[in-house]
Specification:
single chain, mainly alpha, 6 helices, globular
Length: 94
Amino acid sequence: MARVSYVEEGAHPELAELIGRIRGARRGNLLKLYRLLLHSPALAESWFQHNNAVRWNTELDGRLRELVILRVCHLNGATYVINQHVPELALAED
């Protein structure tokens, strides 16, 4: 459980446009990470833009990009991100 509460969409209609853009780029999902970042809409927006630039505006093909993401996550012990990119691993840990 997060130490900071998650932003509930219905409680913040002023965030509807930003949440819609995030959902639109994430196959309709609003990850817990974004629900935390939405406490600071400017931070959520800049994270969203940066993340999209890293993922989609590089010359790496999708397979290599995912391998790089997973390797960097492994080196940094970023289990949450690994579980977002390889959900089967998260299920195996339960």
